[in-house]
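Model: You mentioned two targets. I'll fold them one after the other.
Researcher: Yes, keep them separate.
Model: Target one:
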Amino acid sequence: MEEKKVKSNPKALFPIALFLVLYLGNGVFFEYIKPQEGQMGFYVVSVVLAFSIALIAAFLQNRKLSFDEKIHICAKGIGDDNIVIMLFIFLMAGGFSGIASQAGGASSTANMLLNVIPGKYAVPGLFLISCLISMAMGTSVGTISVLAPIACAVSKNGGLPLELCVGVVVGGAMFGDNLSFISDTTIAATKTQGVEMKDKFFTNIRVALPSAVITFIMLIVYAVMKKGVDVGHFEFSFLQALPYFIVLIMSIIGINVFIVLITGIILFIGAGILTGSLTYATGLASMGSGMSGMFETMIVTILVASIASLMKENGGFEAILSLIRRKAKGKRGGSFGIMLLTAFMDVATANNTVAIVIAAPIAKDISKEYGVEPKKTASLLDTGSCIMQGIIPYGAQLLVAANIAGITSMSLIPFLIYPFILLAFVIVSIIREK
């Protein structure tokens, strides 16, 4: 069945503009103009509330459609196979993250690796560890929460710059978040484009790995120029760390993500019970809290799917495509359009998963029109959002890191080596497209 042609209508984009005013405007106000004590400015106004108001605005548009017809359009958007799969994976990933954290997997893995690395190379070691932990955990904020205190201890014990130690942890966390098979950004990017996670991984790694290697070499050079330091000894349990490595290997060889997550949960339950870090009660509670932590992301996904369906029906997507057609030429132009659209959405929302969910349906249309491979589109969505999320000073990653270290998020920006190198590699990769 041929899809009906929709006319370009810039007014259909009003709901997303309203969301940006509500969320970004209030975030800037409460973060920089009138800060709220003990609360991050961009978390004063709930993203769910802002999207709910935007959805109401979308329903008020296009009087040619009845309320029931608009409900049907939303239901079709929410009921898309990829959206449903994504929601289920979010739940499983939340359970895995909760049980892994409670079992002590992340801290044991980090401490084990840090003890293996010579003290002289503590800074490049922190970067390498954060890359591995984030790939295994699938969450940059979780990785930073675990490693930032360790980075502070390394800085203090070794007399190393605090901003550098914390900054390399943030960079490594964004590397892992971008590539992890169980990251919500990877799930969102692949499922919205209908591609396999392993295909997106191998497309992504062509720009992410060289960027990480160059960052690592720069940090090695820095370490060689400094004298040896004693960063101390950190306690760990190999049994608690082992499940992360198993999950990482299973993900890379392409085993179904549901099987990977279920296996990881079972392994962490076993490791936690054997080492005494888990009980029956704490195991259940941690999985429940991990799943609950995904509820906001799931609700946002449902709201955005509804808003996107209505905007597309009303001609909003066609308006964006018309603008890109005037500016972009060929596959390179389409790729740059996807990258810039995602980056802008992340700057506006300060949430890389939300940015992907918003940009994904438009990116899919750009991908079809300009001949950009779906796996490349998924890679650009994930990479573009992670680059910006790892740089903006009001994002959760930098705010959490700065709060733990007792410094300002702005002071970390000059030390965010990896995200800036990754940005350069992505631009070069697009320019080299045929």
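Model: Target two:
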Amino acid sequence: MKKKLSLIMVLALSLFAFSGCGDKADNAAGSAGADGKDLTKLKVGATANPHADVLNSLKDALAKEGVDLQVEEYTDYIIPNTAVESGELDANFFQHITYMNDFNEKNSTHLVSVADVHYEPMGIYAGKSSDLKNVAEGAVFAVPSDPTNEARALALLEEQGLIKMKEGVSLEATTNDIAENTKKIEFLELEAAAVARSMKDVDFAVINGNYALEAGLTEKDGLAFEASDSDSAQAYKNVLVVKEGNENNEAIQKLVKALTSEDCRKFLEENYKGMVKPVF
């Protein structure tokens, strides 16, 4: 009886070991490309929409090029940059060039852009009011509070003739730099992500394109947008970012090629209907 039990245990252990080897083989095959070669892992940080969605749309094409694109999603603008600086991430895709430059200056980081991809037009959206040509005195406008995006919002309001900024103001202008405000507009300064949520409580909201998308807004909902040939389109173009010294990494360059391809252009145009505009 003992011999029979011993034989059964040996057979069971053998089957378990065989099964385990099969699992390992399957996992190894899962990380290989179509030609059987191992893929090069590339970890890229991104905010959800549109950045992570755009990156995920490129995974299959990059796998054919030998790159295993791994997209890590973030809900803030700080950690994706510090993670690239530390080497935890190979790259990130969530920010505009002006924010990157400002981040480097304030944090002594070494981030560089390797590709201009798109810009998300900042727009003015209706809250309790919808007539930009007849803005009531004392109307409340919600605007982003972070330095670069507040200046951007104010520039858009100036383009619409609603305020006039002081001469020579920088891309970090605030409401303190307004020279003329004949409508006595009041400004509600909020974190960029919170502006869209304030729409029902204010007369108008000036919203970044990515947060407008998250709120379910479309180009048709906007009352005014930054022009595609404006200084803002260049100053706030969204870029693929790496740490200085990694610009010529082979996998990074393959990602650059994919992000600036005609397939990516088509994806942007078909999926975002003017809310995300390619700049390549």
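Researcher: Noted. Anything on target two?
Model: The first strand starts at residue 40 and ends at 47.
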